[in-house]
Design a protein that fits this description.
The protein has one domain (about 5-245): Rossmann fold (3-Layer(aba) Sandwich), CATH 3.40.50. It is about 30% helix and about 25% strand. It contains eight helices and twelve strands. The chain has helices at about 45-50, 75-80, 95-100, 120-135, 150-160, 180-195, 205-210, 235-245; strands at about 5-15, 20-30, 35, 60-65, 65-70, 80-85, 110, 115, 165-170, 200, 215-220, 225-230. The strands form three sheets. It has a six-stranded mixed sheet with strand order 6-9-10-3-11-12, sandwiched between helices. A four-stranded antiparallel sheet has the order 2-1-4-5, covered by helices on one side. A two-stranded antiparallel ribbon has the order 7-8. The longest helix is centred in the last third of the chain and has 16 residues, at about 180-195. This is Sugar ABC transporter ATP-binding protein.
């Protein structure tokens, strides 16, 4: 068995008296697309925030290329090649497209020994990112608040994938988008997959994962219910697992 790009082993997390995750494990190979599904409060976002460095697990471990990794904050996860696109995109509305993409990663140059922002270089690079992803925005110099929801999604994707990401986590990437924008997001995921970038999609839209994914992972109340290959399941099978919290393919354990 090949070493996975990402492995999470027995991850647990509590918030006071509430158990958000209980010994959840996950593995994903480079270029794989995993759909993480379940009802509200299943623990999906908590698990991904731990992987992205936004939360710390109470117990369990994360491995990258088979080696233990600890992320004290999102920047540490980002340095390891893990990016997360949040459902609200986490963009700064007043800043331009380019400024949002390079926030915290600005390109600079020196003039008379003084370091200054190289706005021209960042604008050019931003345009190159959109072209490589097959995404479009009216202009990279526009403030993000002037863009449509689909265009803001494009900015968030470009920011997450433009700096040698190895894993991109997308939280409800097609929520509140129209059909053309949904199709562009799907095409972008396919491009990432072909380039060897792994993708985890948190979504209630099973059809998106059927369209571009490889595998489903079903969670309920902080626990892993079961997993399915996309080619070996259907909506009814997955909905049953989400609703009941049980995998019908697993034998019942006598008490």
């Amino acid at each position: 068995m090949t070493t996975p790009l990402i492995e999470m082993r027995n991850i647990s997390k509590t918030f006071g008296a509430v158990t958000a995750l209980s010994k959840v494990s996950l593995r994903l190979e480079a270029g794989g697309v995993l759909g993480l599904i379940g009802d509200n409060a299943a623990g999906k976002s908590t698990l991904m925030k731990i992987l992205a460095g936004a939360l710390r697990a109470d117990s369990g471990e994360i491995l990258i290329d088979g080696k233990p990794a600890t992320f004290a904050h999102p920047i540490a996860a980002r340095d390891a090649g893990i990016e997360m696109i949040y459902q609200d995109f986490a963009l700064v509305p007043e800043l331009t497209v380019t400024q949002n993409i390079f926030l915290g990663r600005e390109i600079t140059r020196r003039i008379a020994g003084v370091k200054v922002l190289d706005r021209s270089a960042m604008n050019v690079r931003a345009k190159e990112m959109f072209a490589a992803l097959g995404l479009r925005v009216p202009a990279v110099t526009l403030p993000v608040q002037a863009l449509s929801g689909g265009q803001q999604q494009a900015v968030a994707i470009a920011r997450a994938t433009g700096f040698e990401a190895r894993l991109v986590i997308m939280d409800e990437p097609t929520a509140n988008l129209g059909a053309p924008a949904i199709e562009r997001v799907r095409e972008t995921i396919t491009r990432l997959k072909k380039s060897g970038v792994a993708v985890i999609i948190i979504s209630h839209r099973l059809e998106d994962i059927f369209a571009v994914g490889d595998r489903f992972m079903v969670m309920k109340q902080g626990q892993l219910v079961g997993e399915r290959e996309v080619h070996d399941t259907d909506n009814a099978d997955l909905v049953e697992m989400i609703v009941t919290g049980a995998d019908p393919r697993k034998p019942l354990v006598a008490v």
